Amino acid sequence: MVQMTIAVPDNLAEQLMSARDRLPEILELGLRQLTTIHGYSEVIDFLASAPTPQALVEFRPSLKVQERVRELLEKNRANSLTALEKSELDQYESLDLFMTLVKARARQRLASLS
After folding, report:
1. What's the domain range around 78?
2. How many Cβ atoms sit within 10 Å of the Cβ of residue 37?
3. Single pTM value for the model
4. pLDDT, tens only, 90-109
5. How many distinct structural domains can be found in the chain?
């Protein structure tokens, strides 16, 4: 195991001291949240660009996000997901459902235009 030293604001240090035995878990959760947020950020940035209905239908997540989801699904099949990874996979599934609904609306719009 690697030992690290970091500088944090006093108020954060106080909070971390009370949870020092869970620091590895807290850091892992934070890193996982950043990864998950990346998936949401992609969708938010894409939607903020005012895409056409056709672009909505064609939207695909980045290779980075696709690879992470594949990784989580493999671990899920092997029953080796941690609780944090299960939460992350659930968030990706929610995001996927959201985009499925957006794409369905976009397809309806395209059909009404033709």
Report:
1. 10-113
2. 12
3. 0.71
4. 999 999 999 999 999 999 99
5. 1
